[in-house]
Amino acid sequence: MIQVEGVRFGYPGREVLDGVELSVAAGELVALIGLNGCGKSTLLRLCAGLLRPAAGRVLLDGDDLARLSRRAAARRVALLHQSAPAVPGMTVRGLVRQGRYAARGPLGMLRDGDDPVCARAMADAGVADWADRPVDSLSGGERQRVRLALALAQDTRVLLLDEPTTYLDLRHQLEVLRTVARLRHERGLTVVMVLHDIGHAARFAERIVALRKGVVAADGPPGEVVTPALLAGVLGVAGRVGRDPEGGWPVCYPDHPLEFDEGLAE
């Protein structure tokens, strides 16, 4: 479904991605991991059509995203950003309706009454009971679920999540990730999410892609990819890896940081 072919991208004075190759099949749940600044969020924005590669291309079902308008891309790919600016007084219903912009246009998304897509998005994210509450009155975990409903309201088959557990306590982190995993099965979604917690990535993703120095450093099932070598070579820590006695997924025990070159490969 998503094909990243030799993608290079950078910002002024800083190269970020250096020939990334990645393929994500329909229905997969993939976690992107790596240190801050390694290009995870940039890669996600390229896969959403919000950025254009300097070289290479990103294909969605064979179509080059660089040839699509942002609105056309938003009809096919939904991106949940790390954070969103607060709109004082906006209700949960009003915010979720914003997700209908790509499909209904600026006037259609403001039409009175929830269309079935918005109603389902709020129900699936567990926020329907808060529809008339101001978003700024909610807790951090509640707001994240509302933002998930906003992304679901785009009604796409591809869901990209940029650090969906940032700033959340452990309970709400698990709540959000369990919701994403459930909706992936119920809706038949393809999900790619950036995660900082390798333990969460190992537990919830069926595949882990690790970025380092602008390229893919590791790619595969958690049981194969999550190793002491990955901890050292990609995340810059010495540590041990065990197995959860019930679920069987890898469990990491980081010991200490290592001297580490975080720069982009020459």
Automatic annotation (TrEMBL):
A single GO cellular-component term on record: plasma membrane
Domain spans labelled ABC transporter: 2-238
One MF annotation (Gene Ontology) recorded for this entry: ATP hydrolysis activity
Cellular location(s): Cell membrane
Keyword annotations of the record: ATP-binding, Cell membrane, Ion transport, Iron, Iron transport, Membrane, Nucleotide-binding, Transport
Keyword Repeat: no
Recorded topology in the membrane: Peripheral membrane protein
GO biological process, one term: iron ion transport
Protein name per its UniProtKB record: ABC transporter ATP-binding protein
